[in-house]
Amino acid sequence: MQGMFFCGYTDHLPLWILQVSLSLFTFVKSILHLYITSRNDLHLTKQRFQTISVTLSQQLFILIVTLVCLIFTTLATI
Question: Where are the domains of the chain?
Answer without folding.
Answer: 52-78
